[in-house]
Amino acid sequence: MRLEWSKCSKIDINSVGIIGLGYVGLPLALTYVEADVKVIGFDIDDDKIRTLLTHKKSYIKHISDERVQASVEKGLLDVTGDFSRISEVDAIVLCLPTPLNQYREPNLTFVTSTMERILPFFKKGQVLSLESTTYPGTTEEVLKPKIEAQGFTIGEDFYLVYSPEREDPGNPEFTTHTIPKIVGGSTEACLEIGVTLYEKIIKEVVPVSSTGTAELTKLLENIYRAVNIGLVNEMKIVADKMGIDIWEVINAASTKPFGYKAFYPGPGWGGHCIPIDPFYLTWKAKEYGINTRFIELSGEVNTMMPQWVIHKVMDALNDKEKSLKGANILVLGLAYKKNVDDTRESPSVMLMELLREKGANVFYSDPFVKTFPKMREHFFDLDSIELTEGSLNRMDCVLLSTDHDHFDYEFILQHSKLIVDTRGVYKGHYQHVVKA
Known catalytic residues? Predict the structure, then answer.
């Protein structure tokens, strides 16, 4: 989209308030500070505030302590739970969770409740950017009326944009600075201000014609992944029944230089995007009388994968004349993907729940998650166990769920009685390795 810049693009943005200092908000805040922009970070978690300001450390694995320390000591990063300080900044960025409720419907509580807290402190000339993944129409239907009710005119004395986050935790090839940024504005003037906001820190800003376009762009990106993950997980089940190694098939297909992109099967789907975002569109599409069959089918396939894996564990134990009930099962890797400490919507947790329901004694090992974290729906009073010859020998089965590079897979292979591998780590055939 080509923009004809007006006087709005000349408005200075010298300070940014970032609400929500998690996997999206914290790297965004640090990137602004590194570009010499003053940042006030807002969070309701006192532990996060104390960790950043007092200890000058990071609570996210892929963000270094040194980076946090440098930002704090630079004097441009402040962190607070006092939302009245929204009045001190030129721009406000919302980096808040948008989960689903029990009926797979959008839950915007974090966004709407935060808006109610900060609305009294808005001032003329500010820009508000929503980065949370949501359904098309959220910015215009939910946020815009709240701002206008405060007496502002969007596009004249207050600016509203939507710019979806595209963070990929643990991916060393892409950073906040290098990942292209989609920006949609409520008006042309809003778009200009939004581009100005992000051009300070992002190498390539991609303007689109509306906030709805930007909202749907993010959903398409993640639905594309969800559908293809569902496809390859279904292919895994078919290949397993046929006695064919799906990993060999994928590697062979990947040699085609066009028309194919490799996706890899696993024990399910996880993270803050893939298991959640597609259903935001499913819910909204019903308003238009549309059933999103591809999305719902991929959801069915991916959601049932943990049950399929557990049946593979049961069959593997049966072959060794061992029952799952009373068996010691070690789940290897708690995070939702390799080399991160993020456990949100992790299939490993669902595997642990299913194992516990069937009477197994459940343990886990994850070098990045030392203690089972506080979660809204799941609880295990467990700490990560150290992988030693003795601890592995005590296990009836090691269920490889997350393939962290940190694990010594040769050592695990040598000292385990039975391994169920959901990630294709062990190539070739081993008598005590079952691929799932």
Answer: 273
Is the residue at 239 inside a domain?
no
Tokens of 29: 């805040």
d(CA 26, CA 195): 20
Residues 6+ apart with CB under 8 A from 184: 139, 161, 162, 163, 191, 194, 207, 208, 209, 210, 211, 212, 213, 214, 215
pLDDT value, residue 7: 47
Q: Which domain holds residue 55?
A: 7-209
Model pLDDT, residue 4: 55
Task: Among 209, 230, 257, give the residue marking a domain's end.
Answer: 209
Residues 406 and 283 in one domain: yes
Residues 216-221, mean pLDDT to the nearest whole number: 97
Reduced to 3 states, what is the DSSP secondary structure of residue 166? coil
Sequence-distant (6+) residues with CB within 8 A of 200 are 13, 32, 35, 37
The full length of the chain comes to 436
Beta strands in 242-348 (DSSP E): 328-332
Q: Nearest to residue 143, comparing CAs of 157, 156, 159?
A: 159
pLDDT of res. 375: 82
Mark whether 198 and 339 lie in a shared domain: no
77 in any annotated domain? yes
Backbone angles phi, psi at 94, to 5 degrees: -95, 115
Entry pTM? 0.91
Question: Could you tell me the pLDDT band of residue 352, with boundaries at 50, 70 and 90?
Answer: very high
Domain count, the chain: 2
Judge whether 214 lies within some domain: no
> What is the spatial distance between Cα 392 and Cα 24, in angstroms, rounded to a whole number?
36
User: Would you give the distance in Å from CA 385 to the centre of its chain?
Assistant: 25
- In this prediction, residue 12 carries a pLDDT of 83
Higher pLDDT among residues 216 and 7, named by residue: 216
Same domain, 304 and 187: no
pLDDT digits (tens, 9 = 90+) for 72-103: 999 999 999 999 999 999 999 999 999 988 88
